[in-house]
Structure formats: C-alpha cells, structure tokens
Amino acid sequence: MNEIDPKRLPQHIAIIMDGNGRWAERHAMGRVLGHRKGAHAVRSTVKACRRIGVRCLTLYAFSMENWLRPRTEVRALLSLLEDYLETETGEMMAQDIRLTAIGNLSSLGEPISRKLAESIARTAENNGMVLNLALSYGGRDEIVAAAGRIASDVVAGTIVPDQVTKELFGRYLYTTGLPDPDLLIRTGGECRISNFLLWQMAYTEFYFTEVLWPDFRERHLLRAIVDYQQRERRFGLTSEQLKA
Ligand code: FPP
Fold it and tell me: 112 has which bridge partners?
C-alpha cells in the first residue's frame, strides 16, 4: 500500500459508522453487542487520527432518525455514549483532544447532556485534535434551525437580509468554527450520506467501504486517506487552472 503524505492530510475527516447491526448478525449476536464493538472501533479510530495528525474528526454517533429505533436499542446507544464520556475524557486530556458536539443536544436528556457539557468544558483548552460527535443530529434540521435563527435576527434588527451570505449562514450552523470535512468515510457498504453535514459537504471527497464499522481499523483509515490523496480536488475549477 502507498504511504500517506503527511503534508496533504485531510484536515477534517467525517465518518458515518455503519454496519454494527450486520456485524452482530454475522456473529450471531444481538444488535447491542454490535454497537458495543462499534464503540471499540471509535476508540481506536480516535487514537489513530490523533497519531496520524488529523486536525478534526466528526463521528455520526446518533442521528435524529435513530430515535425511531426500538427503545431498547436507543437506550443501549445512549448508555454506550455515557460510558464513552466517562471512560474516555481522561484519555482525551492525555492525548490533547478537544471534545465538541453537534446536534439537538438538549434532547439527549440527563445525565448525558450534563456529562457531555462537562467533558466539553474539561477538554476545551486542548489543541491536538478536535473530536466532534454528531448526536441527535440531522443535516436538514440543522439548516432549518439556522434559517429560523437568521430570520429571528432579521426581525430583531441585529442583521439585515443583505448580510445573509454563505459565510454568515455557516456561522449559524452547529459546526461554526470547524473547517468543512475534506473526507467523508462511510463503512458498511451503503453509498449515501443519510442527512449528515449536508451544507458542510459541498466539496467533500467521499470514500465508501464494505468494511463493517466494528471491523474498521487503522489500516482501513490509512487506505481511505491514501485514496483521498490520489484525487484532484478542483472546487469547480479546471485542472489547468489549479496548476497555474
Ligand atoms: C449504524 O449501524 C451505527 C449507529 C446507528 C450508531 C453508531 C454508534 C456507535 C459506533 C457506538 C457508540 C458511539 C460512541 C461515540 C461511543 P447500524 O446499526 O445501522 O448497522 P446496520 O446497518 O448493519 O444495521
């Protein structure tokens, strides 16, 4: 396999961690065990990204649509998240990782939203990498919420409609302050973006792999980065313009 070029790393990697349920089925286990294995893959991927030098990693850990899953599965996912915050905040401190979160965080309820806020506050000064968890997140909901807040600010007279540019719109999104993802990885073999970072992925490179999320390891991450580094990102320009 080709080596990765440390000078051309994707600054921001976003991951749709799909395939926990199928992994469990293939191993004759319940879905919840698949998610538990998925949480191990989260731990190793965070570590690998930090080691490689990725600046920001966004993980789609719980979508708005996931609330519609059976109650036992929703409870298990939230409890895995709670465990993760309890066990990994110390590790984030040790690895200089800043935790952030995007989504309708208040809907997570107690004690998760409190623990999340505590971990975010505790890691706020860390600089090595941003770990951004998308929780109770939906891309369309995010855009609609931003539009609503812009409308309120126009009504309140804080801004005028002429000031509503792409840059201003971006500042009303959950991801304000973070760069747009350079690379999206989706595991589990499906080729869609499932309401994830719709605005932010305008120019993101997509990488789909059959590997199920619980099996995802550093070598798969490296393969995705090598693939990304072989692409020419033109942002609507021609190859010639880029070389000029
Ligand atoms: C999709 O697999 C995965 C999820 C809905 C949840 C992702 C959660 C984790 C990886 C674990 C907890 C996260 C953290 C940050 C500790 P699926 O159930 O849709 O798989 P399937 O398509 O094979 O059924």
Answer: none
| Amino acid letter for position 136 | S
Residue where the block lists tokens 């605005």: 199
Is 173 inside a domain boundary? Answer: no
Distance 55 CA to ligand 1 centre (A): 23
pLDDT of 241 > 90? The answer is no
Provide Rg for the chain, Cα atoms. Answer: 19
Determine, yes or no, domain membership for 165: no
Specify if 51 maps to a domain.
Answer: yes
What's residue 243's pLDDT? 83
Enumerate the H helices of 53-138 as residue ranges. Answer: 71-94, 112-122
DSSP single-letter state for residue 117: H
What Cα–Cα distance (Å) separates residue 102 from each residue in 40, 56, 64, 231? 21, 13, 12, 29
Distance of CA 241 from the midpoint of ligand 1 (Å): 41
**Residue 83 alpha carbon, nearest atom of ligand 1:** 16
* Residue 56 contacts residue 230 (beta carbons within 8 Å): no
Q: What is the CATH number of the domain that holds 47?
A: 3.40.1180.10
pLDDT at 12 over 70: yes
pLDDT digits 0-9 by tens, 163-217:
999 999 999 999 999 999 999 999 999 999 999 999 999 999 999 999 999 999 9
Would you state the structure tokens that stand for residue 214, as one six-digit string?
Answer: 């619980």
Q: Whose CA is nearest to atom 18 of ligand 1?
A: 21
Q: What angle do CA 231, 233, 236 make, to 5 degrees?
A: 140
Beta bridge partner(s), residue 135: 62
What does pTM read for this prediction?
A: 0.96
Q: What's the pLDDT band for 234 if we cut at 50, 70, 90?
A: confident
